[in-house]
Amino acid sequence: MSGRFQQSGFALGRTSSGAQVLLDGRPVTRASDAGFFYLGFDRDAGPRANLQVVERGAETARTLDIGRAEYDIQRISGLRQVYKGKASPELEARIAAESQRKAAAFASRLNRDDFRDGFSAPLHDFRVTARFGGQRIVDGRPRPPHYGIDLAAPSGTPVYSPAGGIVVLAETGMLYEGGLVMIDHGQGVVTAYLHLSSVDVMRGETVSRGRRIGAVGASGRATGPHLCWRLKWRGRHMNPMLMVGARTPV
Ligand SMILES: [Zn+2]
């Protein structure tokens, strides 16, 4: 097994084809046909994770020590309430339709294992402007954490697929995300690329590692050109940057 055993991190394992993998007693995933699996640890996971693999009726168990991750927490008080007018029915319908398409793409569960060799970075050159998991606490009330990593680069900078996969969403002009590409890397690992100025792939297309999928932009709700990069594993938010340079399990 290899991986980054820490909060928002992961384990990459190899077992037998289709083996059931359990985390803290709950079935969470199955290994690919070649026996590879990805297992994610929550943003606020506890110090230990119990991993069980059931293959051909036999069970192996292992306890992993999960390191703490540091998140950027910003406490703000006395923020003036900004009145937001009610959205028009048209805008509300658009928001609902777009969130349904995003949810459907994140729910993709292709039986592949393109994640098994780890990721390469989606940009050749970038500056991290917002780390994964950062959170603002306004007047004592926690806001939803930032479930992506923001990589600043000039508009038009090529964005590359960090690993192989199938494009499950490719759209320009999403209200919040602008140009948006989502890729299924197998066994519940889906990555997303937000605010693109151009989208260079189509839904259903197979991509390999290093394939250009679009370009950095500031489309949608963005204050400047950057790539917001996200990773969801079976509905849970993970830090995609931790996958960069990960080793293949043996
Ligand atoms: Zn972001």
Strand portion: 35-45%
* Broad shape: globular
Largest sheet: 8 strands, antiparallel
Low-confidence stretches: none
Unique bound compounds: zinc ion
Q: What is the CA-atom radius of gyration, in angstroms?
A: 19 Å
Order of helices and strands: EEEEEEEEHEEEEEEEEEEEEE
First CA to last CA: what distance? 7 Å
What structural class is derived from the secondary structure elements? Answer: mainly beta
How many β-strand stretches? 21
Mean pLDDT: 95
Helix content: under 10%
The count of helical stretches stands at 1
Which tags fit this structure?
250 residues, mainly beta, 8-stranded antiparallel sheet, 1 helix, globular, binds zinc ion
